[in-house]
Design brief:
Blueprint lengths: L8 H4 L15 E3 L13 E3 L1 H13 L26 H18 L3 E11 L4 E10 L5 E9 L3
Antiparallel strand pairs: 1-2, 3-4, 4-5
Length: 149
Amino acid sequence: MAVQKSLSLEDANLTSPSIVGYRSRNYSDLDLTFTPRTTGDVFKKLDAAAVKQSVKTILQTNHYERPFNPFFGANIRSKLFDNYTLEENAVFMKNDISKVLRIYEPRAEVLDVNVSAIPDANSLSVTVKFRIVNTEEIVVLDTTISRIR
């Protein structure tokens, strides 16, 4: 049986550039508050709100909290009682947060991370500034990581 090739019009003329198209992706995720709509369905988060929710989830997750994925998360809560008088601890945490977000959230490009300690409350204030890859929108996320119990 003979194999036939199918050629398009672009294949005949190699001097002209071929048509390049792209598809704009809309990011969506479930709203983790799970508040029901009047239709009984769950609300969705779209685009920047979906990515922001994902980044916040990654920041608040410790290692070994996710089954079958033990190193998911930024593991910040484990560092709550470290000595923050040393400037190196903040630098290490900034690098760890940037690395974790680069691995687990490809929709966000981290621009800046700021970690400040609140020693009297045994908590950390984390500010992450990132760009949504598809929309080029810049989002700032402020969250506080504190002791659970």
